Amino acid sequence: MSDAVLFPIGNDHYAVVASSVREVVCDPHVTRLPTSAASVVGAFNLRGEVVPLFDLAALVGTGRTVRAAYAVVVSTPGGPAGLAVDGLPLVVALSTEVAPSDLRGRLGVHRFEGGLAVLLDVVELLAGGADMATAGAAEPVDAERMVPA
What we know:
With 149 residues, the chain is mostly beta strands.
């Protein structure tokens, strides 16, 4: 078993390896970035560091995140990146893989206490998000909806 950070996206659960997560930010104050890729919600300030915020639902192809209630900040070779999720992220223990995945950015399906989760490769997923945006596979994000009231 390995620890992962689990978050709901729509009716499904997705996870990233816990060691790749720097922190979780509640209600990040998002600044919209004009002309950014469709999967980019905007950016936010994390103690003086500008962190891009990506719409995780758009990256995995399940629609849009209605409100960025949380930003899961992950470490990538290009620096920190935030993943916008609307449900509370939890640390869980994942079992061994129960089903493989050949989809970009997905490492496979794993069991956790309470269900199944798709384990994500964040670096590959973010690289694929740029391809999706340039191919016109997603609509522009209205970042104004993402800023907490």
